[in-house]
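Predict fold of Replication factor C subunit 1; 696 aa.
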Amino acid sequence: QSAGPRNSGSRPLPVGADNCLTGLAFVFTGEMPSFSREDATDLVKRYGGRVVGAPSSKTSYVVVGEDPGESKLKKVRDLKLKVLDEDSFVNLISSTFNGASASTVTLASPLLPVHSAQCTTPVLTSSMTPLWVDKYKPISYSEVIGNKGLIEKLSKWLKNWESNRQYGFPKDVKDDSATFRACLLSGSPGLGKTTSAHLVARLEDFDVVEFNASDVRSKKALDESTGTVSIASLFGTASSSLSKVLGKSAAPVNHKKRGRVLIMDEVDGMSAGDRGGSAELISIIKQTKIPIICICNDRSSPKIRSLANHCFDLRFRRPDARMISARVEMICKKEGLDISPNVIAELVDSTSADIRQILNILSTYKLTNNRLTYDEAKTLSANTRKNSTMSPFDIIGKLLSHGSYRNLSFGDMIDLYFHDYSMVPLMVHENYLNQIPSLSTELRATGKQLDLETVRLLSEAADSISMGDLVESVQRSWSLLPLHAVMSTIRPCFFAHGRGSLRYNFASWLGQNSKQAKAQRFLREIQIHMRLRTSADKNQVCQCYLPTLAQLLTRPLSNSGTDGITEVIRLMDEYYLSKDDFDAIMELGYSKLISGVATSTKTAFTRIYNKMNHPKATMDTVPAKSVGKGHGSELKPDMEEIIDVEDQVLDDDASDAGGNDGDDAISNDRSIKIKKTSTGKNSQKNSKSLASESSR
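Predicted 3D structure, encoded as tokens:
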């Protein structure tokens, strides 16, 4: 990564005629004295030229700055290409502006006189100006941009769904989609997932029933919707129940078509307001008589993992930018909007190839203008740039690299921090030590002086991270988040930004924190089991007991083999330790002791231990919830909704009939055995005897 131009801002940007560089291809190598690489690239694109990465026979000019690449220069000499320096590059552009020099031309246009305040433009209604997204949505498979292979798979799955259902969704077929009752479409927003689902359903002659984030999709809502009919009848033949689910706005069902398809859009958005909705959706999929298409944006969400196991998984990818550019250019020509390929490329880059957002931007812009220039596209891109899909690696790349950091304003850095204010500081902490700060290289220092300045700057960054950690330790003070952003992210990156490694590392603190939590859980369980024999707390168990206990548990196995198993089990029973506790002790830093034991001895130890009865310090008296035959009885709630065991017991007790609470509480206790009452005459005799005893 370069240190940037040494005389940045000393020369104004040249001004040329519109599209004066059309058809020309430029290659930049080295750093120009006055312009950054980004400014020079924008100049070429502004006037219709192209910027390529490597020289070729089709290259028009090669602009050479300071410290150029030797490989590029060698290729330039071999191909005998035209070479320009900064002055020649500026003159090439400014000479096209009617012979005027760049110093006499200003970018600002003069103010035009206002002749009338009366608006002559007719007011356009929504019916007169339909959205471009709806107007130009694909009506055939050939008009779909990208992911055509996935759409063909979706079409094949939907076409063969009914025949696969009649055969019971066989698993021993070559077609992997034939075993699934539902399909899952995943990918970033704007890739055409919902459009593809509707297009395939329409072309395959299916009626569409859609649920999205605006609908209540909780387990309770689905249960209420199916209260009078079974789910099978709801999604099989009962059209009246279907209208009950969808409300008054439900479209009438066309019985002449092949059937209905249910589209569940944004299933990864089924959160707190849709409690139990994911589990209920899975139960519906298991018994559905119509195909179900689920759509999500975040495929890695924990709520989607269990759902994906029951669906035919189709992951949409971002389409090629050239395909999007061609489609957008065709639409702009039909709508009378003058736009160049460079402008379209800028919009594609700023929206992360979201064609839906591009069309919305252009349709809004077309209401007041008929021509979109490159500079206006840059302004629109800055205002509408999509940051929601930025990963932690993208964010840390912008914060630690020289060029991108210095082009960011303070507000931009704050916005990057708030993308994920818990992850971004961890990424900074993980990668700042691998940097060679630009502040040290700009001093032209070498050798030990450069090393000393680098250490000083990284020390400043470390001090700032420490102060940020103090701010973070203040619990629930959300007003301190901007201060935390400065101390944990912006200020450390000011000292550390520069030249770093080619790849940034993921925050290792997360793995270490998980490892620590696991070790703490192991230690707590061991201490609880040993409390009948010891009075030590967790720290004392870890520091005083485990070093000796680990030796006593492994030495007989190492020295005596299978003959020492009895001694080890006796010691474990004396301290109420289980086999899981034995394994946990070995994981707490004593794995080398067990590694010296033969595999056959370990196997024999496990087999003998499992055959024997062992004393336990604690006993679980909470009954396991029985699994009924209902369609959702075996399913667990959503992962983000934690339900305590005590709450489950209270809910079960509250739902029982009155007068049976005490009996159920006793019968559910595993430590108390109750003799089952017999039926018929014997039960009547037993009830009379119990009544007489209670009267006494």
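Residues 321-384 form a domain with the Helicase, Ruva Protein; domain 3 fold (CATH 1.10.8.60).
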